[in-house]
Amino acid sequence: MPMRRITIVTSLMLTICTITAQEGTHPFSAYPAGTKFIHKNLVTLNGDGIESSTLDSSVVWYNFWHTRCKPCIMEMEELNRIALEYKDNPKVKFMAIACDDSASVAEFLKTHRFGFQIVALPKTDFLNTFRVSLFPTNLLVDANQTVLVEKIGGTLNPEGVREELRELLEQLERLVKVEK
After folding, report:
1. Are 139 and 149 in contact (CB under 8 A)?
2. SS3 36
3. What averages of pLDDT result for each successive group of 10 residues across the chain (180 residues)?
4. For the chain, counts of helices (H) and of strands (E)
5. Which residues contact 60 (CB under 8 A, 6 or more apart)?
């Protein structure tokens, strides 16, 4: 009997995921496109304060991750490449919000390079600050604090990472062209 319940629950979840995917929204979406995203006052791993008001007129790419998430780690190289490409544009910011304590993130960064501004929040603080519960989650938020793209999940296929981030990158490219 328990196996049958598991099968039924799994079937229902797959059906829900399929329906919502067809509608363009992830079933566990925290910030679907069109949602207002209120920037938070944060402190980077280096101790630098980030006032929410400094992000209000910028396009912000948020990456929510944690140190034990294999797809999060897999996409870091591509995220670094994208951040490097836009490093001279003062209207584009890149924020990586880790669901880990700062000591764990600092240890992780000894062997992994990540070119975003990095904020580390222990799990309870992270969940109280952001509604994200699946990793990686990437958000592109425009200068009006509207979520343009929310991408939940990643891949373990190195060749597939760029495709996973394609929609965010295309939106970012459009925004930067409009601003010029």
Report:
1. yes
2. strand
3. 56 40 62 94 95 94 97 97 96 97 97 96 93 95 96 92 94 84
4. 5, 7
5. 39, 92, 93, 94, 95, 139, 140, 141
| Two structure tokens written together for 101 | 């304590």
Q: Walk me through the domains of the chain, giving residue ranges and CATH numbers.
A: 31-179 (3.40.30.10)
Dihedral over alpha carbons 66, 156, 154, 71 (to 10 degrees): 0
pLDDT attached to residue 177: 85
Task: At 155, list the tokens.
Answer: 């891949």
**38, two tokens:** 């209120």
**Cis peptide bond upstream of 2, omega within 30:** no
| Residue 64 · residue 136 · CB < 8 Å | yes
60 forms bridges with which residues in the sheet? 93, 141
| Distances from the Cα of 88 to the Cα of 12, 36, 75, 133, angstroms | 47, 26, 22, 32
- Tell me which residue of 31, 38, 88, 90 sits closest to 64, measured CA to CA: 31
CB 132 within 8 A of CB 139: no
Report the DSSP pairing between strands 117-120 and 92-98: parallel
Q: Is 64 helix (H, G, I), strand (E, B) or coil?
A: strand
